[in-house]
């Protein structure tokens, strides 16, 4: 969390002797997000004024996660301000590589495949041999067989589809047929 908070305070600007209550509110908000005020801010002025009546000050603050490598590891560039009265603050935040799933197996609601899957699932449960359950180990074996059968049924009837921002779990074959008819006829009845 960084920006011009427009709060003068002696905590981040030792040349300023006043302690407004806004500071405590700001620090509480940052704490709610588990962020802490970076220590580097107090070493640099971040706002420069055009007139001689007021003094330059620290108004731009950086709050970061204290355990992150970015904490106190950023740069303030007073010479980059050009026509602005605020300095540039550059924080490089590493973004970890993350696997984003783009495909998933799915069954269309109320489809024939969903019906077949449910029927096979019910039959697998009905046909379980419960008479051989004598201990926890035999129960685990029966559950393992059931899990394998469910997975096999799922692989047989589900379809591997792309996950997109337009992915709709409620979309089924009937809607696809209606859409195709509409696209061919351009008639709003479909």
Tally of helical runs: 4
The largest pleated sheet is described as:
3 strands, antiparallel
How many domains in all? Answer: 2
Averaging pLDDT over every residue, what do you get? 80
Could you characterize the architecture of this molecule?
The chain is an alpha+beta fold. The chain folds into 2 domains: 2-90, no CATH class; 103-185, no CATH class. It has 4 helices and 7 strands; from the N terminus they run βαβββββααβα. It is elongated and about 90 Å long.
Q: Secondary-structure map with pairings?
A:
Elements: E1 2-4, H1 22-32, E2 36-37, E3 60-64, E4 75-77, E5 88-90, E6 103-106, H2 112-126, H3 136-157, E7 159-162, H4 173-185
Antiparallel strand pairs: 1-3, 2-3, 4-5, 6-7
Question: What tags apply to this protein structure?
Answer:
about 190 residues; alpha+beta; 2 domains; three-stranded antiparallel beta sheet; two-stranded antiparallel sheet; 4 helices; about 15% strand
Summary, kept brief:
The chain has helices at 22-32, 112-126, 136-157, 173-185; strands at residues 2-4, 36-37, 60-64, 75-77, 88-90, 103-106, 159-162. The chain is an alpha+beta fold and 190 residues long.
